[in-house]
Amino acid sequence: MLSTFRVLVRLPLDAFKYRDRYTITADILKAITRSKRGARKTHIMQRANLNTISLNKYLDLLLRNGYVISEGRLYKLTGRGMEFLENIDTEAMKMQWRL
Q1: Domain-by-domain residue ranges, the chain?
Q2: Alpha-carbon distance 68 to 70, whole Å?
Q3: How far apart are CA 34 and CA 29, in angstroms?
Q4: pLDDT at 93
Q5: Which residues of the chain have pLDDT under 50?
Q6: d(CA 51, CA 59)
Q7: H or E, element range at 77
């Protein structure tokens, strides 16, 4: 156990793959759009690869800002959420072509 810790400490910080907030938000919105009638929390959590605590924080933020609406147990995207998702995809495509 201790030897594994020493190896992790020696690794450079960029050896780990972290997602930024925009990518996590886009993953949540994409998970919701996969289902036409809406998505439940468990499906969003699995598709976006998040734990419950992180998902609740992001969903709360998205609900408060009008990107997602809650209808019972289902979460659906609003027009604002669709626009945000389209803009994220457009910006990502621009960045890929610049490399």
Answers
A1: 18-98
A2: 7
A3: 9
A4: 67
A5: 1-9, 11, 13, 15-16, 99
A6: 12
A7: strand 74-77
